[in-house]
Specification:
Helix content is about 30%, strand content about 25%. It is built from 9 helices and 13 strands. The strands form 3 sheets. An 8-stranded mixed β-sheet has the order 5-4-3-9-10-13-11-12. β4, α4 and β5 form a beta-alpha-beta unit. α7 packs antiparallel against α8.
């Protein structure tokens, strides 16, 4: 998820930091905010590891915006039989991702396939440079930057033929809607689930997410929204409710209301997966 919650004490470490998930310990660059977020917010980044327990063995997780591999490590800790394509565009984070993939493989003798991919994902014509700090990078549009590769192309190049994708996870700080726009027919699979961050910082991004929700609704998806601290908020099919929530956070971003929520995380799923989602919510909150 986006690493930009405010009001946190800055880590004092100037060296790499370690973070453990089950039997695996991964390495993050100095100043990465994730360890502090996990200490302060009990539900932060907890849903996907719980969901991973419910995913079919040997099915594939597509992780766009894989960062240093923290989501990968968390999901493997609860279901090492899963396969992963982990896509990261930033050079520094990708180096950590590759190192952490080796650590994860060494810790799990029964690990599935993990394929790290360095790429910027999005629709054709999108390009730019990545900027940010403390564990998060966002795209700054530029004609001279990296050019985006559609998600369909990534999957075609790196996924085995006839492989089952259980979930596509996207976390790219403001451009998740464009990544999913490049997914094309991948979203047509009846059992497909999508987990994405809904963070927007200008009108173009907000409109992009509105159109994304409209398209997903036409494809019979239902939406479970979480606040940016990881707590479930609402489970709904209503675009009116979604629009109201987007407007609520947008007023705060424009400083027309007191800030309470910075962004939403969204699980989009079809009703044939409602039993899984319902079972997880019945057992919520998780303990760690």
């Amino acid at each position: 998820m986006a690493r930009r919650l405010q009001g946190l004490t800055r880590p004092s470490s100037v060296t790499d930091v370690s973070l453990s998930f089950g039997t695996t310990t991964i390495t993050l660059p100095a100043g990465h905010a994730l360890p502090e977020y996990l200490r302060q917010f009990q539900n932060y980044d907890q849903f996907l590891p719980v969901l991973a327990r419910e995913l079919p063995s040997k099915s594939w997780v597509i992780d766009i915006g894989a960062n240093c591999g923290d989501t990968l490590a968390a999901m493997v800790a609860t279901n090492p039989s899963l396969n992963f394509i982990c896509v990261e565009a930033d050079d520094t984070y990708f180096k950590y991702l590759e190192k952490n993939v080796d650590l994860i493989r060494a810790a799990h003798s029964d690990i599935g396939d993990i394929r790290p991919v360095r790429a910027l994902v999005g629709t054709t014509g999108v390009s730019g440079k990545l900027a940010g700090e403390r564990g998060t990078k966002h795209l700054v549009a530029s004609k001279n930057g990296q050019s985006a590769t559609p998600l369909t192309s990534i999957v075609h190049d790196y996924l085995p033929e006839n492989a089952q994708i259980s979930i596509i996870k996207v976390d790219v700080d403001g451009f998740d809607y464009d990544v999913l726009r490049s997914a094309g027919p991948l979203l047509d699979a009846p059992e497909m689930m999508i987990y994405f961050e809904c963070a927007f910082f200008n009108d173009e991004q907000k409109d992009g997410f509105v159109r994304l929700f409209e398209e997903l609704k036409r494809q019979s998806f239902v939406f479970l929204l979480f606040d940016n601290f990881g707590s479930p908020m609402i489970n709904t099919k209503s675009l009116d409710i979604i629009t109201s929530l987007l407007n609520y956070s947008w007023l705060q971003t424009k400083r027309h209301a007191t800030r309470t929520i910075y962004y939403y995380d969204v699980l989009a799923y079809r009703l044939n997966r409602a039993d899984i989602v319902g079972r997880i919510l019945t057992e919520w909150p998780v303990t760690r």
